[in-house]
Design a protein that fits this description.
single chain, alpha/beta, Rossmann fold, Dihydrodipicolinate Reductase, domain 2, 2 domains, nine-stranded mixed sheet, six-stranded parallel sheet, about 35% helix, about 20% strand, binds NADP nicotinamide-adenine-dinucleotide phosphate
């Protein structure tokens, strides 16, 4: 396999868009600044918006940062990087436009062996026509090896199991599964990558990581923002498709799967698939849907979801969902997993909370044998964002002559412990992996199908029964029914 030092052409389709400008180009510059791009590379942006090369470079520059090259050298490094960026205007479904792109790329590519990476940073509605145009224009190498062609596609991968299967099948006519990198950027986050390390490289966790010792697990994704001008996109998908079916389910899989034999990408993904297949599909009687209405935060008024001009005024799309899942395997039988995701909430927080069972025959219960008078159970909190942290809550004696106990936190706060290190953006990690051909952090076809199987019956039930989401005020903690659902399964508030 050619190494990442071989020449590469990176083609960003949808280069005028939000993701390309805010994430992809800054991540590519970060890789360049750290010496991770091969010496011979070029980046070609493609989209319908009319732009010349200088305008394109100016737009890219707006979001580049000097975090990896502070000081005077930064401006020069940016100019060097931008001088390798080119732009081509064209329609996504037009083979002629892609033939023009092909000619441009061939002129820019100096040597005969040039790998090509295609990043589809476009709405899902144009995925297929774009992929076909790329294929029909002869841009994709058929060989698995030198020179390689790889495609990165962004979620959402379909709307449900059936549409996802169709998309996979159709894209498969252009790119093989080995050439396809389905990105879930949560998998590139530091703390998510740390999940396997925490679990499998520490003796203190894994022996207790099962139904005998763990009472329940909560996985929360909370955002204190509106749809931020992306209401039109969001309304077609909703919070389950946008966050839960991918980010939260991936977190759940990594937190609960069996230990793979080694770190080979196939074995890691096999372990995740096996786990996903053991999850009982989410059901409507163990789910709560909400939608934020108008609210006030610090004296500032926020519009409700339906007041967003890009959202239909009668939209039933949930901006909040809570579900309880169960995993039918020996390790997790009977343990409830509470997944909760919401926009327009009071805080921004993504975390996994693992609540252990209370100690049996605890001699510190006062009075003895009275469970409600016992010290609280241990809890392990893995905070993904903001402020990455691992916090283990233990019961501790308060110093003094009296026997007083309090839960205390053994905490690993990244901003204290690793303050001298720069935490890479998820897209930096993932783009580097694509260039190096490492597929561990990308979603395999059967993994995607298994993830849709968990949520497709719930989504269909919600849509056929036209469930009206429960209203909650912007800036609140979401509908109280979400907490009530958790309580039904013995899960208290965070
Ligand atoms: N933005 C994010 O933070 C984010 C995060 C995770 C995943 N994603 C996914 O990444 C992809 C790109 O996201 P994005 O936010 O960059 O999207 P975007 O800004 O809405 O669209 C990207 C580009 O696609 C073209 N486009 C937009 N709507 C189109 C339409 N209806 N038909 C044809 N072309 C259209 C536009 O370029 P031209 O008009 O110039 O052709 C636009 O600049 C999407 O699949 C999205 O779900 C985005």
């Amino acid at each position: 396999m050619p190494s990442a030092s071989d020449p590469v052409t990176i083609v960003v389709i949808g280069a005028s868009g939000d993701l390309a400008r805010k994430k992809i180009f800054p991540a590519l510059f970060a890789l360049y600044a750290q010496g991770f791009l091969p010496p011979d590379f070029r980046i070609v942006g493609f989209a319908r918006s009319a732009m010349d090369h200088p305008t394109f470079r100016t737009r890219i520059m707006e979001h580049l940062t000097c975090r990896y090259v502070p000081g005077e050298r930064c401006a020069d490094r940016m100019q060097e990087f931008l001088s390798r960026c080119w732009y081509r205007v064209g329609d996504y479904g037009s083979m002629d436009a892609f033939l023009g792109l092909y000619e441009m790329i061939r002129e820019l590519e100096a040597g005969p062996v040039t790998n090509r990476l295609f990043y589809l940073a476009i709405p899902p509605s144009v995925f297929l026509s774009t992929a076909r145009s790329i294929g029909n224009a002869g841009l994709v190498a058929c060989e698995a090896s030198s020179p390689w062609s790889r495609v990165v596609i962004e979620k959402p991968f379909g709307n449900d199991r059936e549409s996802s299967d169709l998309l996979v099948q159709e894209l498969g006519h252009v790119f093989t599964e080995d050439q396809t990198y389905r990105i879930d950027h949560y998998l590139g986050k530091e703390m998510i990558q740390n999940l396997m390390v925490l679990r499998f490289a520490n003796q203190v966790f894994e022996p207790l990581w099962n139904r005998r010792y763990i009472d329940h697990v909560s996985i929360t994704w909370a955002e204190n923002l509106t749809t931020e001008g992306r209401g039109g996109y969001f309304d077609g998908f909703g919070i389950i498709r946008d966050v839960m079916q991918n980010h939260l389910l991936q977190m759940l899989a990594l937190a609960t799967m069996e230990c793979p034999a080694d770190l080979n990408p196939t074995h890691v993904r096999d372990a995740k698939v096996q786990l996903l297949k053991a999850i009982e599909p989410a059901s409507i009687d163990r789910a709560v849907f909400g939608q934020y209405g108008p609210g006030q935060v610090d004296g500032r008024a926020f519009l409700g979801y339906r007041d967003d001009p890009t959202v239909p005024p009668v939209s039933r799309t949930p901006t909040y969902a809570a579900v309880v899942l169960h995993i039918h395997n020996e390790r997790w039988k009977g343990v409830p997993f509470f997944l909760c995701a919401g926009k327009g909430l009071s805080v921004r927080r993504t975390e996994i909370r693992i609540r252990y069972k209370v100690v049996k025959n605890n001699p510190f219960c006062r009075p003895l044998n009275c469970p409600s008078a016992c010290p609280p159970a241990n809890e392990l909190v893995i905070r993904v964002q903001p402020d990455e942290a691992v916090i283990l809550k233990v019961v501790n004696k308060v110093p003094g002559l009296e026997l007083t106990m309090e839960p205390q936190a053994l905490d690993l706060l990244y901003h204290d412990t690793f303050h001298q290190l720069l935490i890479p953006d998820a897209y930096e990690r993932l783009l580097l992996d694509v260039l190096q051909g490492d597929r561990s952090l990308f979603i395999r076809r059967d993994e995607l199908a298994a993830a849709w199987d968990v949520f497709t019956p719930l989504l269909h039930a919600m849509e056929t029964q036209t469930v009206e989401p429960i209203h909650y005020a912007f800036g609140s903690d979401g509908p109280p029914e979400g907490l009530a659902l958790a309580e039904q399964f013995g899960i208290g508030p965070a």
